[in-house]
Structures are given as structure tokens and as C-alpha cells.
Amino acid sequence: MELETSVYRPNVAVYDSPDGVEVRGRYDQIFAKILTREALSFVAELQREFRGHVKYAMECRREARRRYNSGAVPGFDPSTKFIRDGDWSCASVPPAVADRRVEITGPVERKMIINALNSGAKVFMADFEDALSPSWENLMRGHVNLKDAVDGSITFHDKSRNRVYKLNDQTAKLFVRPRGWHLPEAHILIDGEPATGCLVDFGLYFFHNYAKFRQTQGSGFGPFFYLPKMEHSREAKIWNSVFERAEKMAGIERGSIRATVLIETLPAVFQMNEILYELRDHSVGLNCGRWDYIFSYVKTFQAHPDRLLPDRVLVGMGQHFMRSYSDLLIRTCHKRGVHAMGGMAAQIPIRDDPKANEMALDLVRKDKLREVRAGHDGTWAAHPGLIPICMEAFTGHMGKSPNQIKSVKREDAAAITEEDLLQIPRGVRTLEGLRLNTRVGIQYLAAWLTGSGSVPLYNLMEDAATAEISRVQNWQWIRYGVELDGDGLGVRVSKELFGRVVEEEMERIEKEVGKDKFKNGMYKEACKMFTKQCTAPELDDFLTLAVYNHIVAHYPINVSRL
Ligand SMILES: CC(=O)SCCNC(=O)CCNC(=O)[C@H](O)C(C)(C)COP(=O)(O)OP(=O)(O)OC[C@H]1O[C@@H](n2cnc3c(N)ncnc32)[C@H](O)[C@@H]1OP(=O)(O)O
Ligand SMILES: O=CC(=O)O
Ligand SMILES: [Mg+2]
Q: What does the pLDDT read at residue 6?
């Protein structure tokens, strides 16, 4: 089916919502097929059952933050040592997803979904998180797209190129990543309060797709999910209960739903066993979400001026704290019988410069070889053009084995300590680092405000996680007036210096994107927001949460009911 959303006609119809549920987003007949009374009732049930738990978990995050801000550092929890030391395993891996050597990721856009499913990757992670700007239109179209993808009818007609896209006979297995616990969905009010974004994402997707998915993709299992940005196992416990609730509603076996948790916050690295334990009936492993992890390192240590990061480009997987995290993740997953997934190299193909392209591909190749040799069972690709390289690295090492869960134990990683996981990254800080953060942060935010959650910038993939690093690093450097020691000039970062950098980088952006795009895009608004966040006395928790209201579009309702 081709997706054609209706032309907006104000106030002609409203969604058929159950009691206590108010949909404030634009009405569209196509969206109404997703926002059915039954599906909304399911979302409302989830919201009512779990909102107290979610609020408590968010309060615990704030409490932990207060402790870190008073000088504490995260570490292993003595009270859950029995879980770390215990002899237990997760449920066995469903055959449909035993082989996950290359997974492609991307936002839930129609053409991207078709391209990703056809890409030759084993898995496609359809993203409502880092790669999506969660506007009402993006979210609802995303659900329509996923439903069409799961039932196999999805097509897309690119009119400018007169090209029709449809699914191949063989496609990647679909995983869906709902938003993190922290993000509200302001277009759906439940009992007068914005719904929890991830419960909307999960609830709508699950409700409409579980039956078909299990039949066609999961060989009796599924649906499959990726779970982002958790900080503690109590958050995994909520997800486990959500899954059990959904399985009960659907009348399917407990343990049908499976999820891979991204370890992408610093506190969560100390909770990997505990997270797997909570989800042991529903787990298919952990993934190294390296970009959010770096962001989280800065956020966790926002009040620790002795733990400043060097230039963003220097914080890679070669840093001791990053390597330790990846090694410990592999050991933990394999001990518990599940996949240890690698992460995303940020390089993407460079079409107009063969030499630069070869260098970019070589960086990806090296990153993937490092991952597979370390024992990872699979990895992420940001772009279809990277899949052959990722495949080659993983297949070259693993051969026909679907994964390395049983063959690579990494017992040596048992010796990794809290100090290893927290070791301060090494490297210099430069004015160019400050400039690049500023240029990337502003352009990313401008894209996000106008509906794109992942964009190519300076030949790299940028999304919410990578842009967060730019924001918090600028904040940290300004807050502590750090010396730019890589320039040899002894310059310290100040609000004044940052102000000049912003002005100059805005001029550069205008030159690079052209006057028209600069005028019609939201660069000036993005600049204001980004500057405010970088110079705020208190660090905002999330870039996207702080500016979310700018993409909320409430439509008046109740004029007539169809
Ligand atoms: C830190 C993290 O969370 S990582 C996970 C979240 N981030 C992501 O998922 C980012 C995914 N990647 C992307 O969004 C894109 O690759 C971008 C934005 C970086 C670059 O996209 P583009 O500028 O469209 O790339 P480009 O023009 O080279 O695309 C060429 C073709 O590949 C397709 N393509 C590019 N990336 C993807 C993808 N990830 N999935 C499916 N198709 C893709 C394009 O749709 C285009 O298709 P077409 O030839 O049929 O028109
Ligand atoms: O979600 C992935 C990350 O690196 O962040
Ligand atoms: Mg992430």
C-alpha cells in the first residue's frame, strides 16, 4: 500500500478515544487506523499500570544525579552481588535471530524502512529514538509504515525519480526501538497527563503487529525490541512487566517478546548482569551504545572538573574506559547465553571523494574487526553502503557460526574493575573541537526542529546521541573554563569566547548550506537554543527534552465527531 496522508482539513473529525484518553495530534484517516479505540485502550492500560513505576524510576535517576553531583561516582551495587555471582542464564536465543552479524538502523521513514529491510543486513532496527525527531507526523507515519512493513504490503513511489520501492523476498528481521523512559508524548493525554512516549511507541506497535510478526518474521517469537538509555535495572524490570502485560493481553506465551538493551549510560555498565537478570525471560542481549555512553560519561561527571573529556573526535573505542566497557559487556552477555552486540561507527560513504571514501570505509573496517575479534556477535551499520564491509569483517572471523556466544567467553574481562570503567579519557582539547561541536550541534538541532532526527554532517552520521556529546562537552568546557591545551596558546574557554565561536560558526554554516536554506531552515532558532543550553547554569538532562515543546503541535478538537 502506498502511504498518502490526507490533506489537513481542520476540525472535521476526532479519533475514537476511550474514556480518559485525549488525542491532541492532527487527525488523519490514515493515522486513525493506528489510533483505534482498542489500541488506545491498550496504551492507556499500560500507562495507568506503569506510570507510578516510571515516575519513581525517574526520581531515582535524579537522586543518583544528586549523589554524583556531590562527588560520588557510580560503581557496582553490593546489594546485588548475588546476581552478578549467581549461576543463571537468560532464556535461549530464538532461532530467527541467532545470526545478527550485521544490523542496520534508521528512522521509521517509509523509503528508509524498505531500503533497510532489503539491505542484506540480518536485522533492521527501526528507530523512534536517537534517529527520529518525535513530531506527531513522524511518529504516526512511522507506525503506519511499520504496520505496512510487517504485513508485507509497504511500497513507496519516489515521484521525482519515478522509482517504486517494495520489499524483496528476503528481508532483514525487524527490531523496533521505542523512545527512552524520559520522553513524554504530549499529543496523547491520559487522565489529563502526557503519556509516556515509549509506552505509546511500544503499545501501538505491539498491538497492531504482534500476530503477523510472529507468523511471518519471528517463527513463533516476537515482536523484537531494542531498549534505550536505561540507567538502572529497576527500569529493565518495568520493561519486563510491560512485556508480560502485553503477552497476557495478546494471549501469547510468556517470553515471546524479546529485547536487546543498549548499555549506553555510565551507571548502566555497573548493572549489566542485573538488567539481564530482570529481563532474563525476554532478553536477546546487550548492545554497546557508544555515543550515548560518551554523552552519559560527561553528564554523570558534570560536577567533576577533574574528569573533563578531550576533543570529541578523540573519544573512540580505543580509550581504555570504552574498551573496558565493551569487553565487560561481551563477557557478561556470553556468560548469560545472549548476544553481545557492537555499536555504530559514525562514518558513512562519501560519494564525491573516492580517497576520503576509502579512508572512511577503512575506519569502519578496523572498527568492525576490533569488535568481532573482541568477541562481539554482531554490529551496527548506519548506511546500506557499509553493510558489505561489516559483513566481511564478521563473516571473515565467525565463518558460518551464527554468533560467538558459546565460543568466546572472555574470562579475562572478569578482572575489569570500577577504575577501568571510569578511567578518564586521554587527549587534548582544541579550539577546533569547540568549533566543531558548535557547528554540528546547531545544524543537528535545526534538522531536528524541522523533522529530521538523523543527518549527514561533515561525512559523519549525526543523531541525537552524537549531538548530545557536542552539547554537553561545550557546556563542560565553558562551565570549568578549561584550557584548550592542544592549541599551544593557553586559551581558556569562556562565555565570551564561545559567543565569538557561535557567531563565526553561524557565518560558516550559512556559507556551507547557502543563503536560501539558511533563511528557510531553523538555524537561528537552533543557534539560540543550543547557545542557551551550552551556557545554562545547570546542565539540561537531554537536548531533545529541553526543546521538545517546539515540535509539539496541538490541534483543536471536539468540533464534530464522525
Ligand atoms: C547513535 C545511534 O543511535 S546510531 C542509530 C541511530 N542512527 C541512525 O540510525 C542513523 C541511520 N542513518 C541515516 O539516517 C542515514 O544514513 C544518514 C542520514 C546518516 C545519511 O542518509 P542520506 O543522506 O540519505 O544518505 P545517502 O544519500 O547516501 O543515501 C543513499 C541511499 O541509501 C539509503 N539509506 C541511507 N541510510 C539508510 C539507512 N540507515 N537505512 C536504510 N536506507 C538508508 C537512502 O535512503 C538512499 O536511498 P535511495 O538511493 O533509494 O534514495
Ligand atoms: O544508540 C546508540 C548510541 O550509540 O547511542
Ligand atoms: Mg543511543
A: 55
Ligand 1, pocket residues at CB < 6 Å: 104-107, 111-112, 115-116, 127, 130-131, 291, 344, 348, 382-384, 454-456, 461, 463, 465
Residue 562: what pLDDT? 34
Q: Is the ipTM of this complex over 0.95?
A: yes
d(CA 285, CA 229): 15
CA-proximal residue: ligand 2, atom 1 (nearest):
289
Inter-axis angle of helices 523-535 and 464-479, to 10 degrees? 50
Name the DSSP class of 483: B
**Residue ranges of domains in the chain, CATH in brackets:** 41-422 (3.20.20.360), 431-551 (1.20.1220.12)
Report pLDDT digits (tens) over 511-523: 999 999 999 999 9
Report how far apart, in Å, the C-alpha atoms of 54 and of each of 8, 195, 347 are: 35, 11, 35
3-class DSSP string for 125-186: EEECCCCCCCCHHHHHHHHHHHHHHHCCCCEEEECCCCEEEECCCCCCEEEEECCCCCCEEE
Helix boundaries (H) for 159-316 = 197-216, 233-250, 266-269, 272-278, 290-300
pLDDT in tens, 334-366: 999 999 999 999 999 999 999 999 999 999 999
Residues 6+ apart with CB under 8 A from 319: 423, 425, 426
Q: Which ligand is nearest to the CA of 164?
A: 1
Active-site residue among 177, 280, 290, 410?
Answer: 177
Q: Which of 130, 132, 266, 325 to mutate to test the pocket of ligand 2 (most atoms within 8 A of CB)?
A: 130
Task: Measure 492 CA to ligand 1 centroid, in angstroms.
Answer: 38
Task: Tell me the CA–centroid distance for residue 131 and ligand 3, in Å.
Answer: 9
pLDDT value at position 37?
A: 98
pLDDT digits (tens, 9 = 90+) for 106-144: 999 999 999 999 999 999 999 999 999 999 999 999 999
- The number of the ligand nearest the C-alpha atom of 325 reads 2
Catalytic site includes residue 463: yes
Which entry of 28, 292, 367, 463 is annotated as an active-site residue? 463
User: Taking phi first (over 0 means left), then psi (-120 to 50 degrees means alpha), and beta for anything else, what does residue 20 get?
Assistant: left
Q: How remote is the CA of residue 559 from the centroid of ligand 2, in Å?
A: 43
Q: Give every residue of the chain whose pLDDT is below 70, as ranges.
A: 1-12, 556-562
